UniProtKB/TrEMBL annotation, chain A:
InterPro entries: ABC_transp_permease (IPR001851), LivHM_N (IPR021807), LivM-like (IPR043428). GO terms for molecular function: branched-chain amino acid transmembrane transporter activity. This is Inner-membrane translocator. Residues 16-102 form the High-affinity branched-chain amino acid transport system permease LivHM N-terminal domain.
Automatic annotation (TrEMBL), chain B:
Pfam families: ABC_tran. This is ABC transporter related. Residues 3-235 form the ABC transporter domain. The lineage of its organism: Bacteria, Pseudomonadati, Pseudomonadota, Betaproteobacteria, Rhodocyclales. GO terms for biological process: L-amino acid transport. PROSITE patterns: ABC_TRANSPORTER_1, ABC_TRANSPORTER_2. InterPro entries: AAA+_ATPase, ABC_branched_ATPase_LivF/BraG, ABC_transporter-like_ATP-bd, ABC_transporter-like_CS, BCAA_Transport_ATP-bd_LivF, P-loop_NTPase. It comes from Thauera aminoaromatica. It comes from the Bacteria.
């Protein structure tokens, strides 16, 4: 081993004091007009009053705060360096440990999500918010295929969400299709749009890809706004039928010849039944999505996506058909987005182009990036955070989005690779040291 | 005849990178290609893969014309490339990288092929669960070669395998090239800056200059040639 000396992020006390002194000085300069001077009403005239006591306190707080912050940052850096220096063997052990924690977390999350509507069976707000979280989880998992696994930056993902939602809305209101009939068709339609988008951009990567996909998302939305005969324009489509439980409706009174859910099970009618049903429906859809994506990741197509993300030229040299790999990633990502769209339309009962703006794409992308590109469990954490922060932020009224942005910045500073950046290999070593492809889908 | 290029031209937009290349590789040979930076060596190898496609001329591999065949089809016919700069998949583990090399191979051979690669590069076996991006440069090069061998190619293309390696690793790489050829009968086309060592292991060699073949001969002939000595051997390349 060569004697590499790692620069420790340590400052001498004098340096620390000087650093904090400078910051306090800047604080003082800024603080004189902001804190030190204040206007008062002196018998109808405007007078100036000095508040140097308060200013001194503020500057002292800045000084102490800066000292503390610097110290905390250095500590964090040193710890990280220490970790990075650890040998590869322990790195593997740690990765293994991290994976175990993630697995446990996954089971806990699953248990909690199954129990949630039972515990909060009469809390409409909780069930509703949880349903929203699950929609975003599903969207995140879908986009994860494109961005996290295949490494294709897609800023127009909301387009497929819109295609799914409008497919169901139109098929059900115009042709009387049921939710379950429309679901696969809408998914297939969204997948075709994925391929449609995929073709022209096969040769693009990175920034260029991002720009074109951004444009695609906007085109779909603008078509929906302007093609009034088709989509009813900005007014959107309303009275979209709700999904039924094996033919049982969640209405107060049964349609002729049919039965209601409450009637069939001899329950008293409650609007919560539908909400809870919708919640479990999206939970099942999301879990199916998860199982599907985890399975794909272990198949040649999934590994090819990851290889494509890593190096396209190498993929070609390995005899992989990069065209098909990209198109399949777009198609499958789009299909999953389409499914989420169908659910969204069925849950809301009303959709309009306003629900499918670029902001939506940005939030879904943020979920994937914050979650740690490619990590399934990371998406769950990030989706929960990104839906809940604005909810909690309601108390802060207009500062809500500020809080949201701040939280995102902090997460990225704290974990630059995303919440869960550990990538689980698809091939494991068994005890004898031979390799074996994992049979069971890891969670 | 394993490979025959006849009057191959290739372009990158307006750049005319290959200007009528004639190269032949016989079964069981090591053929080396030397030339200055930007001469078109990597382009020649990539054009065998159809990326860029030859704009004129003919490429025949194993008796079949592959000039117009799709890039991903060419690898399936038995050509494997170890690209310039290794291009392993950094976030995937060593074993996953090897597995990617079999994208189009018979899964039944997987165990035997892994064992063969591990026998050749024991360090890869030790590091099989490690992320490939954390391997040393030399180990990454071995991984890139191992990955290419996983598909049981008939022809192996090596683009500057000694790039950026310490002398001990360079020696090791050339030793591997020799072994592959001698013990496994592998036909190899080798691009090298390291002209001296490359010509020593090679049966034959070509000198490429500005997209054209300017000299051809056996390794020994080129080593002795005054032009080669002046341009590639005495300028500190030895
Ligand atoms: N993708 C590309 N687009 C445009 N021009 C390219 C591309 N790749 C190579 N070229 C140009 O083609 C010429 C030949 O490049 P090539 O990479 O084949 O050289 P080389 O002989 O492999 O050089 P080196 O020894 O430096 O690797 C160069 O002038 C280079 O600039
Ligand atoms: Mg080159």
């Amino acid at each position: 081993m060569s004697a590499v000396v790692f620069a420790r992020h340590a400052m001498t006390p004098a340096e620390r004091l000087r650093d904090a002194g400078w910051v306090a000085f800047v604080g003082l300069i800024l603080g004189i007009p902001l804190v030190g001077l204040t206007t008062v009403d002196v018998g109808g005239r405007l007078g100036v009053e000095t508040r140097f006591g308060l200013l001194a306190a503020a500057v002292a707080a800045v000084f102490a705060g800066r000292l503390l912050l610097r110290w905390a940052i250095d500590q964090a850096r040193n710890r990280k360096q220490e970790r990075d220096r650890a040998s590869t063997a322990t790195a593997a052990d740690r990765a293994h440990g991290a994976q175990r924690v993630v697995n446990v977390l996954g089971w806990v999350a699953l248990g909690a999500s199954i129990a949630l509507p039972i515990v909060f069976s009469d809390n409409r707000y909780v069930v509703d918010t949880a349903t929203t979280v699950l929609i975003y989880v599903m969207l995140g998992w879908g986009l994860n295929v494109v961005v996290g696994l295949a490494g294709l930056l897609d800023l127009g993902y909301v387009a497929f969400y819109a295609v799914g939602a409008y497919s169901y809305a139109l098929l059900s209101t115009q042709f009387g299709w049921s939710f379950w009939e429309a679901l696969p068709v809408s998914g297939a339609l969204a997948a075709s749009f994925g391929i449609l988008l995929g073709y022209p951009i096969l040769r693009l990567r990175g920034d260029y890809l991002a720009i074109v996909t951004l444009g695609f998302g906007e085109i779909i939305r603008i078509i929906l706004v302007n093609w009034t005969e088709f989509s009813n324009g900005p007014n959107g489509i309303s009275s979209i039928p709700r999904p039924s439980f094996f033919g049982l409706d969640f209405t107060r009174s049964a349609p002729e010849g049919g039965q209601t859910f409450a009637g069939f099970f001899g329950l008293e009618f409650s609007p919560m039944h539908r909400l809870i049903f919708l919640y479990y429906l999206i939970l099942v859809l999301a879990l199916l999505t998860h199982a599907f994506v985890s399975r794909l990741r272990k198949l040649p197509v999934g590994r090819a996506w990851e290889a494509l993300r890593e190096d396209e030229i190498a993929c070609q040299a390995m005899g992989m058909n990069t065209t098909n790999i990209k198109l399949s990633a777009f198609a499958i990502g789009a299909m999953l987005g389409g499914f989420a769209g169908v659910f969204f339309a069925a849950r809301q009962g009303f959709i309009s182009p306003e629900s499918f703006t670029f902001t939506e794409s940005a939030i879904i992308l943020a979920i994937v990036v914050l979650g740690g590109m490619g990590s399934q469990m990371g998406v769950v954490l990030a989706a929960t955070l990104l839906v809940l922060i604005p909810e909690f932020g309601r108390n802060f009224a207009e500062y809500r989005m500020l809080l949201f942005g701040l939280a995102m910045v902090l997460i990225m500073v704290w974990r630059p690779g995303g919440l869960l950046s550990h990538r689980e290999p698809t091939v494991h070593l068994n005890a004898s040291g031979k390799t074996a492809a994992t049979k069971e889908a890891a969670r | 005849m394993m490979l025959k290029m006849e009057g191959v031209h290739a372009h990158y937009g307006h750049i005319h990178a290959l200007r009528g290349i004639d190269v032949e590789v016989q079964v069981g040979e090591i053929v080396t290609l030397i030339g200055a930076n930007g001469a078109g060596k990597s382009t020649l190898m990539m054009s065998l893969f159809g990326n860029p496609k030859a704009s004129a001329g003919r490429i025949v591999f194993d008796g079949e014309d592959i000039t117009r065949v799709h890039t991903h089809e060419i690898a399936r016919r038995g050509i494997a490339l170890v690209p310039e700069g290794r291009r392993i998949f950094p976030r995937m583990t060593v074993i996953e990288n090897l597995q990617m090399g079999t994208a189009h191979a018979d899964p039944a051979n997987y165990a035997a092929d892994t064992a063969r690669v591990f026998a050749m590069f024991p360090i890869l076996q030790e590091r099989q669960a490690q992320r490939a991006g954390t391997l040393s440069g030399g180990e990454q090069q071995m991984l890139a070669i191992g990955r290419a061998l996983m598909s049981r190619p008939k022809l192996l293309l090596l683009d500057e395998p000694s790039l950026g390696l310490a002398p001990i690793y360079i020696r090791k790489i050339f030793q591997i090239v020799r072994e592959l050829n001698r013990d496994h009968g592998m036909t190899i086309l080798l691009v090298e800056q390291n002209a001296n060592q490359a010509l020593r292991v090679a049966d034959r060699g070509y000198v490429l200059q500005h997209g054209e073949i300017t000299l051809a001969g056996t390794g020994a002939e080129l080593l002795a040639s005054p032009e080669v000595r002046a341009a590639y051997l005495e300028g500190g390349h030895a």
